[in-house]
Design brief:
Elements: H1 2-18, H2 21-26, H3 32-35, H4 55-66, H5 68-78, H6 86-93, H7 104-115, H8 119-122, E1 123-126, E2 132-133, E3 137-144, E4 149-155, H9 159-180, H10 182-186, H11 189-203, H12 206-219, E5 226-227, E6 240-244, E7 249-250, H13 254-259, H14 264-282, E8 285-286, E9 294-296, E10 306-308, E11 314-315, H15 319-333, H16 337-347, H17 356-367, H18 380-394, H19 403-419, H20 425-440, H21 443-454, H22 457-472, H23 489-513, H24 518-533
Parallel strand pairs: 5-10
Antiparallel strand pairs: 1-3, 2-3, 3-4, 4-6, 7-9, 8-11, 9-10
Helix pairs in contact: 1-9, 4-5, 4-6, 5-6, 9-11, 14-19, 14-20, 15-16, 15-20, 16-17, 17-18, 21-24, 22-24, 23-24
Length: about 525
């Protein structure tokens, strides 16, 4: 791997020289000591022919030549037109679904190897010319023998070695950053790269993508908000995916959407609602929502419905993360900055010795300017920069498990800015979040949580009994002597009563304190078991 990583570094260097990206870098307002580096680069000692391409095309072609990880980086950047010059943003948009395809004959060979059958035995029609091509796979239109119009997605060959080399360098840079920079350690770059490594390798397994698409379709079955194409499981393999062909308008084709009189305000608001529904209701969200993966149905433009494809990357949150995010956002909407500061301290994101008043004032300074403004009037670049300054001041740590969520938020904001610049993101999301909080505390939800915990009682009781027996006889050969031979009945009855009383009190106070119901269920179960068995 080390040899491959060195070879990859030279490959990156050649691409930088070929497209003269160093000229773009040194044209930026950099510190003098960084500008001085240009005088020690050997390839700059000799005259070079100036490229006819503009800077956006040079950057796009360089990312394209460097492979899937760099292409995906360009895809993310393409959604942030507020942070990029227009010429660069226009070029990076081409990376979303117009990456040059690989040889169609090789594509057909790979499909036949995966399916174990000839193309003609599975499809009554197969379009050799690719319908679309992206960083990891390309897509061909086809028709099944049974008449359904489908698309056939096939993984690009030879990706794993390139991805491995890129990740090796990312890990080297991340470890160096953690070693030499205290600010970098707060961002956990090694954990972030490790999380991305898992994500990118998962994306190479199309069976995983098919399962994700089926789950997402089930979550929004019959919903007017989102439609997910059907997966044809009989013809899905690790490197081949066959699914329903959809017909819609790409979400960034604003001219066509305007021609069919699409309600752009509703479209933007439904995009926000879809995101919050996936995150908080389902804890299962599409985490690759760049414009190349999102279309708009042409059936009811006055009530527009999104169509989502490419579910290779999805994210989920633990109940603790959901609760933390919801309460933070809810406090933000209420402008309760003291509550936000307290939640950060309680969760351990900032040290416990942090002064609450100072942290509250810092958060207020960063967040107050963004309220009651449409997206077009908000500079999120400045907000993020000031939040990072706040993070450094209070040693606030970035949580690696939320990286996918943060990436998705960037995509959502970029889309919202293009669709309906006057959208008030906060007022659109607040009613949904308030409704979710109410439903979370409803009697139905509480009973559902209690029922799920009761199902675990037999297992928990056995675990507790075995643990107590091992603790009482640490030197015995048999760690589980017959229960009836125990002589410390009074102690176990007392312990059971304590568990029972504590569990009842926690069950009463748990919903108010947002501690959840599982601790109460465990304590009650242990108490009842100990008392009954004695």
């Amino acid at each position: 791997m080390k040899l491959l990583a060195v070879r990859r570094l030279f490959r990156i260097q050649r691409v930088v020289i070929r497209y003269q990206l160093d000229d773009l870098l040194f044209a930026l307002p950099l510190p003098w000591f960084l500008l001085a580096v240009r005088y020690v680069l050997p390839w700059r000692w000799f005259p070079r022919k100036k490229l006819e391409l503009n800077r956006g095309a040079r950057l796009r072609l360089a990312l394209q030549d460097l492979g899937p990880i760099f292409i995906k980086f360009g895809q993310i950047l393409s959604t942030r037109r507020d942070l990029l010059p227009e010429d660069i943003a226009d070029e990076l948009m081409l990376l979303q679904d117009r990456v040059p395809p690989f040889d169609p004959q090789l594509s057909m060979k790979l499909i036949e190897e995966q399916l174990g059958k000839k193309i003609s035995e599975v499809f009554s029609r197969f379009d050799v010319e690719p319908l679309a091509s992206a960083s990891v796979a390309q897509v061909h239109a086809a028709q099944l023998k049974t008449g359904e119009e489908v698309v056939v997605k096939v993984i690009r060959p030879g990706l794993k070695p390139i991805i491995g080399q890129d990740l090796a360098w990312l890990f080297i840079l991340a470890r160096a950053a953690e070693r030499f920079s205290a600010d970098a350690r707060l961002l956990h770059p090694v954990d972030v790269v490790a999380d991305y490594e898992k994500t990118i390798y998962d994306e190479l397994d199309l069976l995983r993508e098919a399962a994700n698409a089926s789950q997402l379709k089930r979550n929004f079955e019959g919903s007017p908000l989102l439609y997910v194409p059907q997966v044809y499981w009989d013809w899905c393999r690790p490197k081949v995916l066959v699914m329903e062909r959809i017909y819609g308008v790409q979400v960034t084709d604003l001219a066509t959407l305007a021609d069919q009189r699409t309600d752009m305000k509703m479209l933007a608001e439904r995009g926000v609602e879809i995101f919050f529904t996936q995150v908080f209701r389902d804890s299962f969200f599409h985490a690759d929502m760049h414009p190349g993966n999102i279309f708009v149905s042409t059936v009811n433009p006055w009530s527009p419905q999104y169509i989502a494809i490419d579910c290779g990357i999805v994210g989920s949150l633990t109940p603790e993360d959901q609760d933390y995010l919801a309460r933070n956002l809810f406090a933000f909407f209420k402008r309760d900055y003291r509550r936000v500061a307290q939640l950060h301290i309680d969760s351990g994101w900032v040290p416990a010795e942090t002064k609450l008043n100072e942290f509250e004032a810092a958060i207020r300074t960063v967040c107050e300017p963004i309220f009651e403004k449409p997206l077009k009037d908000i500079s999120f670049g400045q907000v993020l920069m000031r939040l990072f300054q706040t993070a450094r001041r209070f040693n606030m740590e970035v949580q690696p498990q939320l990286v996918l969520l943060q990436k998705t938020l960037l995509n959502i904001e970029g889309l919202g800015r293009q669709l309906y610049p006057d959208l008030d993101l906060w007022n659109t999301a607040q009613p949904f979040l308030e409704r979710w909080m109410r439903e979370r505390m409803s009697p139905k939800t509480v009973l559902g949580n209690l029922h799920s915990q009761m199902e675990q009682l037999p297992h928990l009781a056995n675990m507790t009994r075995d643990l107590l027996e091992r603790m009482s006889q640490p030197h015995a050969k048999d760690p589980a002597p017959p229960w009836k031979e125990r002589k410390d009945d009074w102690f176990l009855r007392l312990l059971g009563a304590a568990h029972l009383v504590g569990g009842v009190m926690l069950a009463i106070g748990g919903p108010l304190n947002s501690l959840g119901h599982w601790p109460a269920g465990v304590m009650v179960a242990v108490g009842v078991y100990l008392i009954v068995r004695r």
